[in-house]
Amino acid sequence: MSFPVKSIDIRFSAHATEDHEKVKQAVRNLLPEELAANIVFKERSLRGHYRNPITLFEAQINEHRSVEDLLSKFAASLNSFDKQSIREEPDLFIDKNSLYLRFDKQAAFKRLLKIQNADPIHIRIRFTSQSRRTILETCHRFGLTQ
Fold first, then answer.
1. Cα(52)–Cα(81) distance, rounded to whole angstroms?
2. Which of the four CATH numbers 3.20.20.140, 3.40.220.10, 3.30.1440.10, 3.40.50.300 does domain 5-142 have?
3. 146 pLDDT exceeds 90?
4. Which of 140, 103, 139 is nearest to 26 (CA)?
5. CB-CB contact of 8 with 70 (8 Å)
6. Global pTM value
7. Mind listing the pLDDT tens digit for each residue in 26-84?
């Protein structure tokens, strides 16, 4: 059986009022040690609603071992309430062939993994299958759901 995950996309923004290095460190805190040390974020400058500067950071993880390590880290760090939410409310997290997770930047800076929608760290886990059932089974197998 082939590996069920194609890649993991990481996307987050830093506003002008935020320390960009601290925001990047918050994201690195969510990653396995080796990946955190080697990840390179692409940066893009944007303008917000009131013309305020925003920097968008993006990275994609394609390497099989890194993807597995990251999924394992998420599974070990997610609390039972968030795991239950993914399982019981898949429409909030799954669209087509992807599982979308949004993590709190402040909590991540403290090395905590907490699902939140306001100004989050966006994680998109791309699966090889578009079957919701297969995606949920894979999430369960990796420990992302209970």
1. 35
2. 3.30.1440.10
3. no
4. 103
5. yes
6. 0.93
7. 999 999 999 999 999 999 999 988 889 999 999 999 999 999 999 999 999 999 999 99
